[in-house]
């Protein structure tokens, strides 16, 4: 089970404990979330990850030596780039969103991706 899914499951269990509701009561997660008014952990983690991306782009260092054999491991920038592409696509098609990613930050990520 992925980390985000595990955090969501744990958060829902804590929300149920806050309301003193058990699984047998069969109350939907949306209803529990509405009653507790707790911020969704997955959205919070995603937001913090995007905020952390700016300084990390400036810390890039080139690889020394040859890379290992096999498929390259997933980099932290892969997830950021995927989220940034999705947000830019939403902006192009008029889907409402809060704050768009600045173009200078997006260019920095793309430039870093070209260097690797």
Automatic annotation (TrEMBL):
It comes from the Eukaryota. This is Jg2736 protein. The lineage of its organism: Eukaryota, Metazoa, Ecdysozoa, Arthropoda, Hexapoda. The gene is jg2736.
